[in-house]
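FORM 7B: Structural annotation worksheet

SECTION A. Query
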Amino acid sequence: MSTLKSLPAMPVAPAGAHQPTLRPVLRTDQVLALTGTSRTTLARWIRAGLFPKPMKLGPRLNGWRFDDLQAWCAARMSGKEGV
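SECTION B. Predicted structure
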């Protein structure tokens, strides 16, 4: 039996209704590559309030919303401190 067949059908929103947009979530290694920092520096920035806090995706799994990181980058480039 296929797993897909056992899942319930997703409801379809009426035409013109607001459709939620999925936003990408970056994992720690991706954030480290994006920022060019080490895990230690990233942890320091988070503790100091200089970088967005991650969201918990699981017991040992963190992730950052791409939109939050874009806002952080924009703030850094405009000379603002903090998140």
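SECTION C. Observations
The beta strands are 25-27, 55-58, 61-65. The longest helix spans residues 66-77.

SECTION D. Sign-off
Analyst initials: ____
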